[in-house]
Amino acid sequence: MLTRLKAPREGKLAKQICKVVLDHFEKQYSKELGDAWDTVRDILTSPSCWQYAVLLNRFNYPFELEKDLHLKGYHKLFQGSLPYYPKSMKCYLSKTPDRMTSERYQIGNLKRYYLLNAASLLPVLALEVQDGEKVLDLCAAPGGKSVALLQCAYPGYLHCNEYDSLRLRWLKQTLESFIPQPLINTIKVSELDGRDMGESQPESFDKVLVDAPCSNDRSWLFSSDSQKAACMISQRRNLPVLQIELLRSAIKALRPGGLLVYSTCTLSKAENQDVISEILNSHSNIMPVDIKGITRTCSQDFTFAPTGQECGLLVIPDKGKAWGPMYVAKLKKSWSMGK
Ligand SMILES: C[S@@+](CC[C@H](N)C(=O)[O-])C[C@H]1O[C@@H](n2cnc3c(N)ncnc32)[C@H](O)[C@@H]1O
Question: What residues does S-adenosyl-L-methionine bind to (predicted)?
Answer without folding.
Answer: 139-145, 162, 193, 211
